[in-house]
Structures are given as C-alpha cells and as structure tokens.
Design a protein that fits this description.
The complex is a heterodimer of chains A (256) and B (470). Chain A has 256 residues and is an alpha/beta fold. Chain A is built from 7 helices and 11 strands. The chains are: A alpha/beta (256), B alpha+beta (470). Chain B: Its main location: mitochondrion.
Chain lengths: 256, 470
C-alpha cells in the first residue's frame, strides 16, 4: 500500500534582513548595530509553504533553521509562531557572522539535512539585503539533490515534487524527485500573520543550539569585501522654458 | 510669488519665507504651483483651494517653531496628512500655510504587552500593520484609504471593522498636539497610556474629530488588538433591501460579535461585478466577516446563517483563505471606483448618514425611492452594522441641473437621518460641506459651546479656518 505521507520532514531556512541600509563611514560594510531586523520576505513565503504542506497532512514535521548571532532566535520564533514544529539555531557570531555568506550557509544546511534526514529544504529565493540568490542552488549542489528554484507553485505527487518556476520567458513546470531543494518566489503564497495565541504557543516549542564546528563545517570565507559605497547622489533636475531649450539641453549632455 | 493675504509687502512675505526655511531647511518650504495644488485638495468633490505655501517639518520642534511664526504673522495653518479625506478638510479657504506632515514618519514606543503604540503623522495604517506583523498585533480601524493615522484621529475615522473594534474615538489613547501659538500639549499627559482614565476633561476625544481646527496632531497613541486566529468571509444575497437590513439588525441583536457586515444594494453589486470581474447575483447583498478561534467561528456562522435563511437569504458563498478574502474586501473598497466606472467622465460624491439600527430598513428604503424619483445614479453601500450607509452619487460635472438635484437629494437624506435621531455624518466629518447641517443636528446652544471651545483654544481662528463651524 502506497503511503501518501511519504514526506516526513521539511527544513526551512528563514533569514533575517536589515530593515534600513546605511553604509559605514569607513566604507567597510553596512551598519548592523541597533538596526531593526526582520524575517526576509521570501523566507516568510518559504515558511508559509512548509506550514501549508503540513496542514494538508502531506508532511509530518517542519524544522526552522537560522544561522547567526543571538537575535536569529527571534526569526526562528516567528517561524514557530507561523506553524513550524521546532527550531535549530546555528550559532555564528562576531567576525564569522560578518563574513558568513551563501557558501558557508549551504555547507551548514547540507550537514543539517543529512543529520535530520530531511526530504525537502525550502528557502527564500534570495535575501533582500544582499540579493545573492545562491544559497538554495549551492545547497542542492553540495547534497547532489535536484532543485526547484523561483517556485510560484509547489505540489507533492508521491515521491516527486511538481514545481512551477517563474522564469524570464514565462512559467516552467518541472517534476523533480525527493529529497530536493526548493526556493520560494514572490507569488508562491501570501504568508500568514502570526497571531498572539500562536506566538504564545511558539514560546514553548524547542530551539536546539548547534555550532558549525559540531557539524564539521569550516566557515572561512574565500571572499574579501574591499569596499561598500552608496550609489551616486541623485542630481537635481533642470527646468527649461521651451521645447527648443529641452532639445538643446539633451544634445548638450549627449543624450541625443 | 504667492501673496499672503494678510501681509502687505513683498518684503514681509520674503521675511516669513526665509524664516520658514531657517526652520525646516530650503527644501522644506515649497511655493511651487503643483505642490500647492496637491496640498489644496483631497478626494472629495470640493474644488482645489491651494495654500500660499507648503512647509514640510521633520519633527515636533519644527512644527512648534513654524506655528509660532504663523501665529506672530496671523497666517492660517492647515495640517495635511495623506489628502485622502472626503469633506474638503484641507482646502485653504483663506490661503495660508499648509503643514505637510509626511516627513514625520516614525513609529515610536511599541508596547506589545500593553497593546499600544505611538506613531507620527506620516505613518499610514498599512505601514503600521506591516510593521506589526511579527508581534501578532494589528490596528483594525480601516477606512479603506491608506490614510495617515493622525489624520484618521483628526477626522474621527471609522471603517468596515467598526462594528467589532470601534472607531478612532475608542482607539486613541493620547495625542501630542501643537496649538496655534506653537505650544505643545499631550492630551492625556506626556507618555501616559493607561487603558482607562478618569483624570480631568477628556481632551483626547476633544481633539479626535476636530479636523485640524483646534491644533496640529503630531503624535497619536493607539490601542492595538490581537490578530484574529481565524477569519472567514461570506456573501449572502437577498430578494429585498428590507430582508438584508432586517437580517443585520437581528444578527446584532443575537449578540454575534461579527467583525464586518456590509450592505450593497443591487445597483452597487452590479457595478462591483463589472469593475472587479465578479459574478455575484445582482440583488441586495451582505458581505460578512467573522473573526475568532475555529470553534467560535463555527458558532457565529451557524447563528448568522439561521438568521439570514429565516429572512430568505441565499446560501453563503464562502471565502476562507487570505487571497480570496482580500479579493472580496478589495471589491468592496473599490466600490467608489466601480461607481465611477459606470459613467466615465463623471464625478462621485458620497453621503454619510448614520441612524439607530432599528431605523435602518426604513431610511434605506425611503432613500432608494427618492433616488428613483429624482432620476439620480446612486449606489448604496454601507456599514450597516453601525447603522451607517453611503449613497455613492455619480454625476456629470457639466450638468448643472443634475448637480443641483444631487445637492438637494443629499440635504433631504441628511434631514431624513436627523429626523430619525441620527447624524448627517457617521465617519467622513463635517469639513466644508456640512457646516449648516451640523447646526441643524446639534442646535444653537451646542454650536455656542463648540464655538466657545474654539475661541478659547484658537482665539485668532488660525487653525484650518472655515471648517466644522460657520
């Protein structure tokens, strides 16, 4: 008899992003101290999709993982309030956190996926503060799992996953076997607001603490940030009196 | 260069302008025609009355300094939030200085455990609710437009959720107000936010609904609510207006804590169907929404269905998931545009009467008869749970006769509501157009009291002159 509850465990990776970007005075990076963090919008969509699959009784457990300093726990709590069952906080702080990038995170995810025996990993397609769009793809490569990225529709079909992907030319539908990595795009769903009773329940759910070293992951970065600078200041416009003036000015500045 | 009507020399005008610039910076003062026009009108039918200058203060200290300056030179002050009002409240009838508060956009002092938050005038209700997402809290007053919360306080706004969560009057706990002479007060005391108080005159609620005629609101402390565990919406059609409105009255009398109960007549539903690509039966309709735990919803829904069915209502059409529910309520909020779309090139005007619940069936039926007799295009939509409904009139701005008939119709409707112990404005405010009706509604002794309050707080009538009181 074929069980329709093939998928047992999904891991989601909600990341927190800065809500306000200011470049540090020495151009070495962006200011993170005292800036409000919030769950990355695409990660919210990923968590929502995982919780929806669990509500449809297609999977048994949703585990939320976040990598970072203490405040990453808040992001995990939000995922728990949305309906994830338990959390794993991978502690990365200080210098290591400043250089933590998609490659390191995907190594952590790959190690956790094996340890937790997950069938699906769902992430947001990219973080809105760095716009890398690499973690999902790298994780799939490290695990040698198929990937369904930019998903705008996900359905489970036995031991396969049907994914409708948003691509430049339109929509592409693929069928991949599990275990697999999916990344969530904007139109996949509308994430629920956490309700107070669920926030209270989330406080009782477990968050395990893990260090990258325990997972055998080396966090050294192969990238060195040389400089971060703001885009050039927008110049004020110039008003002209007549169309002839306009054409003249456009020619002057080499636009036509 | 614009002319400040009280000032007699160009030098005096220049003096004041450079003083403004020294307070809020060179780009914080605008004389541009387009900017002034933008700040001289709202979403009502009242024509644009641009101010002489628009200033953009960044903090309460700047608002106070600007107000002191205006006071010294006797310049009218018109506060401006998002310009989404419906009664011409921002028109500068005597010229003057528009204080555009959009750069004061901070959300301050959120206390989730106490269910309160303080916001500046540049914060809109959607911005606040987005900020609150992860706390499990929300601010439910929803007038449709993405309005400034301080502006909503100034006009005592309400919305589709008022039947369950109240209006701004019930949900503003404290205000920071800059008076016409520049002094800054906190109506309930600085930083105070107890859930209830018996301390002194209720100044907070004096300023709520004062439409900028008593002071400039620079902060409002709001009461927050827990996001409902579950929400479900439904649509029910009836064969008559009477049946739909009777159902509303009975649902409330049965004690169902219904979150939203909106009535749309067949003319309105037809317009909404066409505008929002829906296919509801074209007959008097109720849009309903229930909030609560899963078990509580079941009980609420069962009681409500019994009532609607006993009034001959159709089966409920359900909307359970967020996307379907949002589409439903967007169709309701788009009613204004849907009405306009029925007669392109026309303008729209909304009436806003509110009567005791038991009089609702009577007034709606009489109003529909009046519409037919007067040969007017009117769509009825409203928060029937509060006894409040809007007649969306669509009229050809070049047809003087039609405009005149609309005007007379609105006066008759307002007087009908007053005769039924109601009010001429449930939520839009008095603004420019309802000042005479206000006199009829409250009577001369009350107008005298209101005028003496105005004279005490703003003796020179600098604060938004020409509004509320004649």
């Amino acid at each position: 008899m074929h069980s329709n509850r093939y998928c047992n465990r999904i891991i989601v990776l909600p990341f927190s992003v800065l809500l306000e970007i200011r470049v540090k005075p020495d151009n070495s990076g962006v200011v993170t101290d005292g800036v409000k963090h919030s769950m990355n919008p695409f990660c919210e969509i990923a968590v929502e999709e995982a919780v929806k699959l669990k509500e449809k009784k297609l999977i048994k457990e949703v585990v939320a993982v976040s990598c970072g300093p203490q405040q990453s726990q808040e992001t995990i709590r939000t995922a728990l309030a949305m309906g994830a069952d338990r959390g794993i906080h991978v502690e990365v702080a200080g210098k290591d956190y400043e250089t933590l990038g998609p490659l390191q995170v995907s190594k952590i995810m790959a190690a956790l996926a094996k340890k937790e025996d997950a069938q699906l990993i769902i992430l947001g397609k990219q973080a809105i503060d760095d716009d890398c769009n690499q973690t999902g793809q790298m994780t799939a490569a490290l695990l040698d799992w198929p990937q369904g990225t930019f998903a705008s529709e996900v359905s489970l079909d036995g031991d396969k996953v049907k994914v409708v992907r948003e691509i430049d030319g339109g929509l592409e539908t693929i069928k991949i076997s599990t275990p697999a990595v999916l990344t969530a795009d904007l139109r996949l769903n509308t994430p629920r607001y956490a309700t107070l009773p669920n926030i209270m329940k989330a406080k009782k759910k477990k968050i395990a603490n893990v260090k990258p070293a325990d997972l055998g992951v080396d966090l050294t970065s192969r990238l060195e940030v040389l400089k971060v600078e703001e885009p050039p200041q927008r110049q004020a416009g110039v008003k002209v009196e007549t169309v002839e003036d306009l054409v003249g000015k456009l020619k002057e500045t080499g636009r036509i | 260069v614009s002319n400040f009507r009280n000032m007699f020399t160009a030098a005096a005008v220049d003096g004041v302008l450079s003083a403004f610039r020294s307070i809020c910076g060179d780009d914080g003062v605008s004389l541009g025609e387009t900017v002034r026009e933008q700040h001289g009108k709202d979403e009502s039918v009242h024509r644009c009355r641009p101010p002489d200058v628009v200033v953009f203060p960044r903090c309460v200290e700047e608002v106070s300094a600007l107000a002191k300056l205006c006071h010294r030179h006797q310049l009218p002050i018109i506060p401006f939030g998002t310009g989404t009002g419906l009664e011409g409240g921002v028109g500068a009838v005597k010229g003057g200085v528009c204080f555009s508060l959009r750069n004061m956009d901070q959300i301050l002092d959120l206390h989730p455990e106490d269910f309160d938050v303080t916001v500046e005038p540049g914060v809109t209700r959607k911005a606040l609710n987005s900020y609150l997402r992860e706390t499990g809290l929300w601010f439910p007053v929803d007038p449709g437009a993405d309005a400034s919360l301080c502006g909503m306080a100034a006009t005592s706004a309400s919305g589709t959720n008022a039947v369950r969560y109240g209006t701004m009057r019930e949900n503003v706990m404290n205000l920071e107000v800059v008076l016409a002479d520049g002094s800054v007060i906190h109506t309930a005391g600085r930083n105070r936010r107890p859930r209830k108080t018996a301390a002194g005159y209720n100044l907070t609620n004096l300023f709520v609904g004062s439409e900028g005629t008593l002071g400039i609101i620079t902060k409002t402390t709001l009461r927050l609510y827990g996001v409902p565990e579950e929400m479900v919406s439904a649509v029910c059609s009836f064969s008559s207006v009477q049946a739909a409105v009777d159902s509303t009255v009975q649902i409330l009398q049965a004690g169902v804590p219904i979150a939203r109960i909106e009535f749309l007549d067949e003319v309105m539903i037809d317009a909404c169907n066409k505008f929002s690509s829906l296919s509801y039966p074209v007959s008097p309709t109720l849009f309903l929404e229930f909030h609560g735990s899963e078990r509580s919803l079941e009980e609420q829904v069962n009681t409500t269905e019994d009532i609607t069915q006993s009034n001959g209502g159709s089966d409920f059409q359900w909307a359970r998931d967020a996307e379907t529910r949002n589409r439903l309520w967007k169709a309701r909020h788009d009613a204004w545009y849907a009405a306009l779309a029925m007669r392109p090139g026309c303008k729209a005007y909304a009436t806003d009467v509110c009567v005791p619940l038991s009089r609702l069936p009577h007034i709606i039926v009489e109003t529909k008869e009046d519409l037919i007799e007067s040969r007017l295009t009117g769509h009825i939509v409203g928060h029937v749970g509060d006894g409040n409904f809007h007649c969306l009139m669509v009229m050809d701005p070049s047809d003087q006769d039609e405009l005149h008939r609309v005007h007379l119709f609105s006066q008759r409707l307002a007087r009908r509501a007053l005769a039924m112990d109601g009010t001429c404005t449930g939520e839009h405010g008095v603004g420019l157009g309802k000042r005479s009706l206000l006199c009829e509604e409250v009577g001369p002794s009350v107008i005298r009291v209101m005028q003496s309050l105005k004279d005490a707080i703003d003796p020179n009538n600098l604060m938004n002159p020409g509004k509320i009181l004649l």
